[in-house]
Amino acid sequence: MKLRPYQEIIRDFLLEKERCNAFVPMGLGKTVSTLKAIESLALVEAAPTLVLAPLRVAQSTWPDEVQKWKLDLSVTPIVGNAAQRAQALREESEIYTINYENVPWLVDWFKYNPRPWPFKTIVADEVTKLKGFRVKQGRARAKAIGEVAFEKVDRWIGLTGTPAPNGLKDLWGIMWFIDGGERLGKSYEAFKQRWFQRGYNGEIEPCPWAQDQIQGLLQDVCLSLDAKDWFDLKEPIRNRIVVDLPYKARQMYRDMEKKMFLELEGRLGPTEIEALNAASKTQKCLQLAAGAIYTDDQRNWQEVHDAKIQALDDIIEEANGAPVLVAYHFRHDLHRLTAAFPRGRVLDSDPETIRAWNAGKIPVLFAHPASAGHGLNLQDGGNILVFFSVNWSLEEHQQIIERIGPTRQMQAGHDRPVFIHYILANDTVDFDVLERLESKKTVQEVLMAAMKRKR
């Protein structure tokens, strides 16, 4: 595989610096760039790499990226119950991945087992998970990894798209793992005393000179890439996030897919009406891919899996406070989304909802593409759109993108790219729908091609 120019910059920076942070927006390939750096390091270092990440990312994303790009690396997730995690540690691998919640367990495991700590490189994916680190207190997972960060680890790589979601105060914790407090202070209190002051409302706020001084101190060990420097702002940055269906959901999907293809085979014809009927036959498969299915004509439904919910949680977490617009298709999508993300709001007919979104007061806004039609202005509220589920309507797809699209962003004076993330269930009709939306082929053409592939 060949890296893009900005990905080569990331890789080279990670190789050059023994301890560093890479602040790279989602969608620019920081995972594969890091893997290429690890691949180079593996040629000269005998020790394995430990990747800290959110659970789904540790379990699926890192192994999937290695397979996707055909890299010469082995990845072992340290997940599951304690016995399964211990067994994973006994396997030979170049990379081990673990979720942040299990970091204290990992550190203790090596304390009480005869095998010495093997990891000389640590990659902290979504390093803001460690922003709460304090030398004498703070979260257990940050304190646990702090015990080995310098004593037993030679190389540290922090990755995130938004290093300071709540302001400059978030930087001290993630920078401590780079230099032990040399640049920003040996303690969080020292950091606050040097660069912060009490505001009129009693809250601490940065001193006028804090931004420039802190930025100057970090520039040699922190790489910051801005998407607008590498992409034409006239086009959104699109990203596919692929999730695997759990075993039972996969079996249900395969049964439904067989029935769908059998019905389509005898019904596809040359007319648009028949093509639309064909599209309707795929709805059950799309529902299963999204995570739930209607069980009767009264619109009662049953949840099948939460793989896409977990993926959306990772996206929102990586956005670190930046508002996220989420497009859904089925009513049961909305029920599940509002239950999983109670701070989210639904795009309704109340003008105050749009005003609150554009004022940055809504962290997650759920919208059906059909309800986000012509003339609706959402560009001031954010520049991140996630398709939780997809549907065949090209017009609705284009319309909801245009609500926060590049043209509207520029017209409103926002010099920022638009990110579009598609959460897709692996080996499902999700990919056929996206092909239709991107290629503008007819539904019939896409479904005929899908049947041939399956055969």
Number of H- or I-type helical stretches = 19
Shape descriptor: globular
> How big a fraction of the residues is strand?
15-25%
Fraction of residues in helix = 40-55%
Order of strands across the main sheet: 3-4-2-5-6-1-9
Terminal Cα span: 29 Å
- Unreliably modeled segments: 270-275
Describe this structure in words.
With 455 residues, this protein is of the alpha/beta class. The chain has two domains: 5-225, Tandem AAA-ATPase domain (Rossmann fold, 3-Layer(aba) Sandwich); 237-454, 3-Layer(aba) Sandwich (Rossmann fold). The protein has 19 helices and 17 strands. The strands form four sheets. Strands 3-4-2-5-6-1-9 form a seven-stranded parallel sheet, sandwiched between helices. Strand 5, helix 6 and strand 6 (155-160) form a beta-alpha-beta unit. Helix 10 (247-267) runs antiparallel to helix 12. It is globular, with a radius of gyration of 24 Å. Mean pLDDT is 88; it is low at 270-275.
Structural key phrases:
six-stranded parallel beta sheet, 455 residues, single chain, Rossmann fold, alpha/beta
Secondary structure elements and their pairing?
Blueprint: H1 5-16, E1 19-23, H2 30-42, E2 49-53, H3 55-68, E3 75-77, H4 82-89, E4 95-99, H5 103-111, E5 121-125, H6 140-148, E6 155-160, H7 171-179, H8 188-195, E7 196-198, E8 204-206, H9 210-218, E9 222-224, E10 237-243, H10 247-267, H11 272-281, H12 283-290, E11 292-294, E12 301-303, H13 307-319, E13 324-327, H14 331-340, E14 345-346, H15 351-358, E15 364-367, E16 384-387, H16 394-403, H17 406-411, E17 419-425, H18 429-439, H19 443-454
Parallel strand pairs: 1-6, 1-9, 2-4, 2-5, 3-4, 5-6, 10-17, 13-15, 13-16, 14-15, 16-17
Antiparallel strand pairs: 7-8, 11-12
Helix pairs in contact: 1-2, 5-6, 10-11, 10-12, 18-19
